[in-house]
Amino acid sequence: MNILVAGGAGYIGSHMVALLLEKGHTPFVIDNLSTSDLKNIDSLRKKYGEFRFEQLDIRNDEDLLKIDVELDAIINFAALKSIPESVEFPEKYYDNNIGGTTNLVKFAKEKGIKNFVFSSTANVYKFSETGVLSEESPTEPTAPYGYSKLACEKLLEYSNQAFGLNATALRYFNVCGNAMDGSIGDPSTTNTSIFAALFLSYYKIKPTEFSVFGTDFDTPDGSGIRDYIHVIDLCSAHLKAIEYMQNNPGFNVFNLGTGTGYSVLEIMEKFKEIVDKDFQYKIAPRRPSDVGKAITIPTKANTLLNWKAEHSIEDVITSMNEWYKKF
């Protein structure tokens, strides 16, 4: 298949490109490089050979419409993703995330592309006291970032009804890990995930002591529990979604996670086992927006997409160590 990958130079997008190339598909990659650079593109070309890349901003619909390639599907990773930044600059997130996706939908309609996979987030949900979320859980974002993603989902749902665009929104839980050989990864130093923060601190790329925010949650060890999914497993679900839409037209939403939660302190112990037993960190007060537990029930993706996460927490830490030690 010929697949347009918007945001394909970034962290998740570059892993998607790698998977497509491994599976014999032809990616056409676009990225404005506002939050990434060409490091991952160069690494992918060195490993897999040439593929088409254009520096292009999806907010520019005129440039999008100049693309003259027969495409079977679009995968959209091109978005801003910092929750704190979205609170400070909501207009920036609405312009980029909603405006860019709107242009890609118009592009799909103009070019007759029938399949669209959208990179969404678990932040669209109203988090429950149980901390367990399914696709039927109520949506109530707490920040402009989540609202921008939910608005894009609605656009895709209505586009399916209006002109038959098959669309799948994949709601990610906590994405982590890299290519197992460390060849591609997150070029940013602003990623706030626990794993990125650990490695940025450990390798003194961002030399601040690592903090555990809150040990007074209603969890077994008092620290927050999250559902961590390896980026390679995440990308495999995108390809499964395209294959599913080819035989099951319509609009669908799937949660992507493992269904298993790990606490921050458990992650710290795993990290020290694999990387450095003497790694230091500090305990800090919990942040206002934090919840004690957030994991998913991935039954719908397991059943309908025939997909299941396969990589372990050890795989996450090992693969990220391979990336960051070469940073």
- Could you name the ranges where pLDDT drops below 50 across 5 or more consecutive residues? none
Number of β-strand runs: 15
Instruction: Quickly count the helices.
Output: 11
The major pleated sheet works out as:
7 strands, parallel
CATH homologous superfamily (4th level) name of the domain at 2-175 and 230-257: NAD(P)-binding Rossmann-like Domain
Outline: globular
**Architecture of the domain at 2-175 and 230-257 in CATH?**
3-Layer(aba) Sandwich
CATH topology tier name of the domain at 2-175 and 230-257: Rossmann fold
Terminal CA distance = 33 Å
User: Briefly, what CATH class of the domain at 2-175 and 230-257?
Assistant: Alpha Beta
Q: How do the strands of the widest beta sheet line up side by side? A: 3-2-1-4-5-7-12
Structural class: alpha/beta
What is the overall pLDDT average?
94
Give the ordered list of helices and strands. Answer: EHEHEHEHHEEHEEHEEEHEEHEEHH
Helix content: 25-40%
* Radius of gyration over C-alpha positions, nearest whole angstrom: 19 Å
Strand content range: 15-25%
Structural features:
327 residues, alpha/beta, Rossmann fold, 7-stranded parallel sheet, 4-stranded mixed sheet, 11 helices, 15 strands, 19% strand, globular
Account of the 3D structure:
With 327 residues, the protein is of the alpha/beta class. It has a domain at 2-175 and 230-257: NAD(P)-binding Rossmann-like Domain (Rossmann fold), CATH 3.40.50.720. The chain has helices at residues 11-22, 39-48, 61-65, 83-88, 90-111, 144-163, 194-202, 231-247, 264-274, 299-304, 313-324; strands at residues 2-6, 26-31, 52-55, 73-76, 115-121, 132-133, 166-172, 174-176, 210-213, 225-226, 228-230, 251-256, 262-263, 281-284, 293-296. α1 runs parallel beside α2 and α5 (90-111) packs parallel to α6. The protein is globular and about 55 Å long. The model has no long low-confidence stretch (mean pLDDT 94).
